[in-house]
Amino acid sequence: MDDRLPTHLWVSAHIRTADAQGVAMTVVRKGDPSRGTVILKINRLDRTFSVLVQTREADGERLFWARGTGADPVPEADADAYIARQLRYDPDVWVIEVEDRQGRHWFDGPVR
Hints:
alpha+beta, five-stranded mixed beta sheet
């Protein structure tokens, strides 16, 4: 049985936590409320961005974030192009923009 929270609750909890710490986080696009995958668009506030894609280990349990746009920050147009390609394949995706100068994602799970 899958006991994970529905995506909409999981995202809302992280947004509230970030807000309490003064971090701006915005839902850019709502996906499937129950099981939509999450893409994080990290705005470093210096005109560069990183895109992280929610991924799970083969066992389906442990969450991590894959670097969709590579290890180095990219211009916003590149980040948006990557996200647009992902949306063509999976229309149920959530897109969350996080504004953090240090590039932190504020969600559970390591970045790989």
